[in-house]
Please model this.
Amino acid sequence: MASKNKISEILIVCRANITRSVYISGYMNMILKESILKKNINITSAGIEARNGSSPNQVIRHVAHLNGFNVNDHKSKKLTLEIANNVDIILTMEDWQNDFINENFTLEKNKVFKITNYLSKKRKTKNSDISDPTGMDTIFYRKFFEIAHRESKRIISCLNNYN
Model:
């Protein structure tokens, strides 16, 4: 784990760790390859209700490929206290996920954030959840990818300035 002033381990959390967290962690890692932080930050993912060993959603695998990265080898993992303790920052998709982590794990303060709020100058409302597009129409996936790309780029840019 990093010193208190540096972020080196980031965990992206969603419900099942087969759609949102897989894609965002993969996209962020792709962006990091072009960043000055590429050797200083490790981004992984987990799911609150994940079944260990599941493959990513087929749409996520396909869109990741179209965007220049690969998540085909990813296997889902359930969020545990050990995983949570071994990272500097936990970024979630929805308020209920923050609540679940804070209620079920004893962690240091200022470790769990909703991804849309992390390092954001604007105060976000509960409407800033990143909805799960799994099983939904194409428009829901498009909205997810738009938000995932925007938030990933914003966070990596902020970390470049922070670290």
Remarks:
- The CA atoms of residues 88 and 154 lie 18 Å apart.
- Strands lie at 9-14, 42-47, 89-92, 112-114.
- The chain has five helices and four strands.
- The helical segments are 20-32, 58-66, 81-85, 95-104, 138-162.
